[in-house]
Amino acid sequence: MSAAKKMTNLQLELLKIFSFELPDSQLVEIKDMLSKYFANKASDEMDRLWESNNWSDETMDDWSNEHMRTDYE
């Protein structure tokens, strides 16, 4: 068996901040807030990639029409 993984800095910080019980409604709100935060980060990175690679709608259309599956005989 592998050694237990250490907690990330985010996990440790959240444990410190939320060392008390929360109502389920607040827990749902916090999960939603964190989901939105990371979704925005992913979207920002996609925007950055889009700009730096000069991608366009045509690029996306080309990708959607690519056939990358391996032919099996």
Question: What this model shows, in words?
Answer:
It is built from three helices and no strands. It is mainly α.
In short:
This protein has helices at residues 9-17, 24-52, 57-64. It has 73 residues and is mainly α.
Task: Please give the structural blueprint.
Elements: H1 9-17, H2 24-52, H3 57-64
**How far do the termini sit from each other?**
40 Å
How many separate helices? 3
Largest sheet: none
Mean pLDDT over all positions: 89
β-strand amount: under 5%
Oligomer status: single chain
Radius of gyration, rounded?
A: 21 Å
Q: Can you give the helix content as a percent range? A: 55-70%
What coarse outline follows from CA principal-axis ratios? Answer: elongated
Elements, N to C (H/E)? HHH
How many β-strand stretches?
0
Low-confidence stretches: none
- Structural class, by secondary structure, is mainly alpha
Tags for this entry?
73 residues, mainly alpha, 0% strand, elongated
